[in-house]
Amino acid sequence: MKKIAIVLATTALMASPVFAGDAAAGKAKSAMCGACHGAAGVSALPMYPNLAGQKEAYLSKQLKDFKSGARKDPVMSSMAAPLSDADVVNLAAYFASLK
User: Which of 7, 8, 66, 91 could cross-link with 76 by S-S, CB 3.0 to 4.6 Å?
Assistant: First the structure.
């Protein structure tokens, strides 16, 4: 029973907006993303995915994986490399906020 309570409490904390990025800061940093993914996060080219409306945690994980090399793509790896942890969560918050 204690384990269930701990898991539920941890899940509630992780879902808290305290961990959310700053969408305004992400928007300011998003210009480099627009070339492939579209200015509003909707790509005009079929080879690039739409980012608008994606889940924040998913976007953050993918950017971190490109940065670390866990996910490989020559273009995305070079784009993600200079991003700070704050940049990653802010970009994720921005694109997640778009419809």
Answer: 66
